[in-house]
């Protein structure tokens, strides 16, 4: 019977022009296997095994099936199994007729590995999606054949897009993208579309990171699942040459398989797209989309696309999809160093690792490429079979100085599109501020009217800068080198005529030669250990437009007059503290003063600067270990950020701190000799207070003060024993950490008034119970009480419906059971109880929510469960 069905399928496939290889007569037992069927399978894009009860009895079918599976794994070939009156479970477990047949083969063959391969192939086929023929659908075999023919046509209708053969790290990316596209992906194959809606995915990243290659690879895995598909590459170039209508016509032609007419007007083409493809499930890949207007002009508002359609685009700009509700994003990062080295070696040596002689050079070159696939491939290919170490070193030097020319060209297009404010901020970050807290340079940019609130997000959207979770600016090395090249090109021969001097040797030369010009906006020095350098005021002649100056260990003296009158930021870290008597500075525009790790004490004459700089917003005194008391703060100061972190000898906060009505952030971490908090006075604007590792014994606030405080961090205050009930006045507090306050045993009842609190960390304290008032903390999301003395699961927290994480791990006195009604915590995702004496564990099924992941429980009696 199955032979008749196979013949019918053969005729139907060949009838629509598909070239088919069909197994003729099964070979008799004991005869050698003809290699031609195996070769045909290797060359075939699709294999269709018809699995019947007798299938495993054949000594030709099993090797062929094994070859199909190998081609699926190694060459991304497609298998469409047909289960002809058999249960796939019998294949997966090698039971029923397959167990008997394999037993007969075992008698004839001594090669156990061969049988294992055959059994593995049967199991793999049993796991695949296929077509099932059985008694209940005997009358519809013709319909099944029709479905199979259509499926094969869809899989073969287009050729794969050309992508590199040297893939590294692609599989994890593909799995993630398939999940975002809501496509069922199993064992390297896209099986079916798991959601009937229209899904849009943007793949973003800097030039050269491999967006297009990854998108093409995903497209090749997917297109057989759709009625029609289209790939449009280099969209920017097409639009620049022939306008947006050329891209629309290409899309229409692809989806209509070349039969569509061409349109002259964009509006008509878009209207056709909306009407023509409502009933077709389509896959569209748009490469290098510039902005959201362009995207909308090509595919419209998506309402004209059939449910089940998928649209993928690549772009450097992450705001392309800002107007598409529910759009997904995938940001492609540069490769890891080991991955980059492997990819480079595949192109440079044809192997996964370098020969010993070129080990160091290969590692250095892979790092200097910025770990970008495009640069790795081009550079590796250019060095293939090149044996000269001199040539390799020259390549390394060139990569260290500036980006590869192809990446440079792509970045220049993106940079040219920025406005003047974005240019300024981009170059500042590239030359000076990568790795810095983004809130600090913000004040300078804001004072210069560079609109950082809108400009920085615009740079982020173009993948030109990132802000990490710790709020630090990050710029990829390739982008920094690109920025350096822009500045160098302002004047290749005379650094004194460039806008920024970030290179120490060039900056030092300009000062020593007194060659400063009005073109220089920012200058940075970087001295190592050694004698202190002293610069006189005349070294700064001509630098009247300087807005950022980094002295770093150097000292200055003399009457500067108006030489630095436009300076916004003086970065004088490690200031020696001497020669100040002969120094006269006029800094009326200064907004940031950084004296980190400087030898400045209470009597330092430089504190006079605070009287002059009425615009000062940031004062950084981190690590000034000579400081025993803070300076006096003038009543006119508009200071917003005061950093006293690691001033390890600081004992007194001058009462004038109450003058700082506009202070937003006060950081006193690591001030070990600070025993009391100051009188806050009218400091009502404070939002962040860090008192970690101080020696305070009590936290007390005046009623009506600190109304805007959002963050209070008092970690590692080992002398802290009391928190006043006044803490309840902090109505805006969202973050409270008392971690490692090892003498703190109680929380005040007033903590229940913190209605905005979202994060509470009481880990490693002596707290035994939470006050009942915690039930009022309705916004709480995270509660951490690791290694506390808590004895029972706090019943009052079961009222906190927004709670997402509870951590009671290592609470060795905690016993009892997880409450039966923990299901009330509908948002709970993480419950950590390891190292407790909890005697039972529940995994409640919460309606509409995922069950929380509960860490393994353990006790001396139970062990682990």
Any overview of this molecule?
With 865 residues, the protein is α/β, with parallel strands linked by helices. The protein has 5 domains: 155 residues, Toll/interleukin-1 receptor homology (TIR) domain (Rossmann fold, 3-Layer(aba) Sandwich); 162 residues, Rossmann fold (3-Layer(aba) Sandwich), CATH 3.40.50; 65 residues; 83 residues; 169 residues, Leucine-rich repeat, LRR (right-handed beta-alpha superhelix). Helix content is 31%, strand content 14%. The chain has a 16-stranded parallel sheet with strand order 15-16-18-20-22-23-24-25-26-28-30-31-32-33-35-37. A 5-stranded parallel sheet has the order 9-10-11-8-12, with helices on both faces. A hairpin with a 2-residue loop joins strand 6 and strand 7. Helix 14 runs parallel beside helix 16 and helix 15 packs parallel to helix 17. It is globular and about 105 Å long. The C terminus is likely disordered.
Instruction: Name the CATH superfamily classification of the largest domain.
Output: Ribonuclease Inhibitor
Quote the average pLDDT: 87
Oligomer: single chain
Structural class: alpha/beta
The count of DSSP E runs of length 2 or more, i.e. the number of strands, is 39
Write the layout of secondary structure elements.
Elements: H1 2-15, H2 35-43, E1 46-47, E2 50-51, H3 61-75, E3 78-79, E4 82-84, H4 88-93, H5 97-108, H6 112-126, E5 131-133, H7 141-156, H8 170-180, E6 183-186, E7 189-193, E8 199-204, H9 211-222, E9 228-232, H10 235-242, H11 244-255, H12 266-276, E10 282-286, H13 292-299, E11 310-315, E12 328-331, H14 337-348, H15 359-368, H16 373-382, H17 389-401, H18 405-416, H19 420-433, H20 439-447, H21 452-461, E13 466-467, E14 473-474, H22 477-488, E15 500-501, H23 504-512, E16 522-524, E17 534-536, E18 548-550, E19 555-559, E20 569-571, E21 583-584, E22 592-594, H24 609-612, E23 618-620, E24 641-643, E25 665-667, E26 688-690, E27 698-699, E28 711-713, E29 722-723, E30 735-737, E31 759-761, E32 782-784, E33 805-807, E34 815-816, E35 830-832, E36 837-838, E37 853-854, E38 858-859, E39 863-864
Parallel strand pairs: 1-3, 2-4, 4-5, 8-11, 8-12, 9-10, 10-11, 15-16, 16-18, 17-19, 18-20, 19-21, 20-22, 22-23, 23-24, 24-25, 25-26, 26-28, 27-29, 28-30, 30-31, 31-32, 32-33, 33-35, 34-36, 35-37
Antiparallel strand pairs: 6-7, 13-14, 38-39
């Amino acid at each position: 019977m199955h032979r008749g069905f196979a013949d019918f399928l053969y005729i139907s496939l060949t009838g629509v022009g598909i070239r088919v290889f069909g197994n003729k007569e099964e070979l008799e037992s004991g005869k050698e296997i003809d290699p031609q069927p195996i070769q045909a399978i290797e060359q075939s894009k699709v294999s269709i095994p018809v699995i019947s009860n007798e299938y495993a009895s054949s000594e030709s079918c099993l090797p062929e099936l094994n070859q199909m599976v190998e081609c699926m794994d190694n060459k991304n070939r497609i298998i469409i199994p047909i289960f002809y009156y058999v249960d796939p479970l019998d294949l997966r477990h090698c039971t029923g007729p397959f167990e008997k047949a394999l037993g007969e083969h075992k008698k004839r063959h001594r090669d156990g590995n061969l049988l294992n391969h055959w059994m593995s192939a049967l199991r793999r086929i049993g796991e695949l999606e296929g077509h099932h023929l059985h008694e209940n659908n005997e009358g519809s075999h013709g319909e099944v054949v029709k479905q199979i023919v259509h499926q094969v046509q869809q899989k073969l209708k287009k050729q794969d897009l050309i992508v590199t053969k040297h893939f590294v790290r692609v599989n994890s990316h593909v799995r993630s993208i398939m999940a975002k596209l809501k496509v069922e992906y199993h064992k390297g194959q896209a099986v079916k579309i798991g959601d009937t809606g229209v899904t849009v995915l943007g793949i973003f990243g800097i030039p050269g990171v491999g967006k297009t290659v990854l998108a093409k690879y995903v497209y090749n895995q997917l297109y057989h699942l759709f009625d029609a598909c289209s790939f449009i590459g280099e969209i920017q170039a097409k639009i620049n040459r022939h306008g947006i209508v050329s891209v629309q016509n290409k899309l229409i032609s692809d989806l209509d398989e070349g039969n569509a007419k061409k349109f002259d007007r964009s509006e008509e083409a878009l209207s056709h797209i909306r009407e023509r493809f409502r009933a077709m499930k389509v896959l569209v890949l748009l490469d290098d989309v510039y902005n959201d207007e362009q995207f909308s002009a090509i595919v419209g508002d998506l309402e004209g696309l059939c449910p089940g359609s998928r649209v993928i685009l690549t772009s450097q700009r992450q705001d392309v999809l800002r107007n598409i509700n529910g759009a997904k994003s995938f940001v492609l990062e540069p490769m890891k160093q080991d991955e980059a080295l492997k990819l480079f070696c595949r192109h440079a040596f044809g192997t996964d690792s370098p020969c010993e002689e070129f080990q160091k050079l290969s590692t250095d070159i892979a790092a200097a490429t910025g770990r970008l696939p495009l640069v790795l491939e081009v550079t590796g290919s250019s060095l293939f079979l090149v044996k000269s170490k001199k040539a390799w070193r020259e390549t390394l030097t060139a990569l260290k100085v500036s980006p590869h020319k192809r990446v440079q060209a792509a970045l220049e297009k993106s940079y040219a599109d920025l406005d003047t404010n974005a240019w300024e901020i981009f170059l500042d970050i590239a030359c000076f501020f990568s790795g810095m807290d983004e809130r600090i340079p913000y004040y300078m940019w804001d004072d210069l009217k560079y609109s950082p609130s809108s400009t920085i997000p615009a740079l982020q959207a173009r993948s030109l800068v990132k802000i990490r979770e710790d709020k630090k600016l990050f710029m990829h090395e390739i982008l920094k080198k690109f920025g350096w090249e822009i500045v160098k090109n302002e004047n290749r021969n005379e650094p004194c005529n460039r806008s920024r001097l970030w290179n120490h040797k060039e900056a030092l030369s300009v000062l020593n030669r007194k060659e400063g010009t009005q073109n220089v906006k920012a200058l940075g020095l970087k001295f190592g250990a050694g004698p202190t350098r002293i610069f006189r005021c005349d070294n700064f002649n001509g630098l009247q437009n300087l807005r950022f100056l980094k002295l770093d260990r150097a000292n200055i003296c003399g009457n500067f007059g108006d030489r630095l009158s436009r300076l916004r930021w003086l970065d004088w870290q490690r200031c020696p503290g001497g020669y100040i008597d002969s120094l006269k500075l006029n800094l009326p525009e200064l907004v940031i003063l950084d004296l980190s790790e400087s030898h400045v004490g209470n009597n330092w004459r430089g504190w006079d600067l605070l009287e002059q700089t009425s615009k000062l917003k940031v004062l950084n005194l981190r690590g000034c270990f000579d400081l025993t008391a803070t300076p006096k703060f003038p009543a006119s100061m508009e200071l917003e950020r005061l950093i006293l972190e690691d001033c390890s000898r600081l004992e007194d906060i001058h009462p004038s701190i109450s003058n700082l009505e506009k202070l937003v952030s006060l950081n006193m971490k690591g001030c070990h000799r600070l025993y009391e908090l100051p009188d806050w006075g009218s400091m009502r604007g404070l939002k962040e207070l860090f008192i970690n590792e101080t020696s305070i014994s009590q936290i007390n606030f005046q009623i009506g003060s600190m109304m805007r405080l959002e963050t209070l961090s008092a970690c590692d205050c080992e002398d802290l024993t009391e928190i006043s009930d006044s803490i309840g006045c902090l109505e805006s507090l969202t973050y409270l950490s008392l971690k490692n306050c090892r003498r703190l045993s109680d929380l005040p009842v007033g903590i229940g008034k913190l209605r905005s609190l979202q994060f509470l960390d009481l880990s490693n304290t002596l707290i035994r119970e939470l006050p009942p008032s915690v039930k009022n903390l309705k916004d709480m999301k995270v509660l951490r009480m690791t290694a506390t003395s808590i004895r029972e699961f706090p019943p009052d927290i079961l009222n906190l419906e927004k709670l997402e994480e509870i951590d009671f791990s290592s609470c060795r006195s905690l016993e009892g059971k997880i409450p039966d009604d923990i299901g009330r915590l509908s948002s709970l995702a993480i419950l950590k109880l390891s190292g407790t004496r909890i005697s039972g564990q529940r995994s409640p099924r919460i309606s509409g929510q995922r069950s929380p992941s509960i860490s393994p429980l353990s006790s001396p009696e139970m062990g682990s469960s």
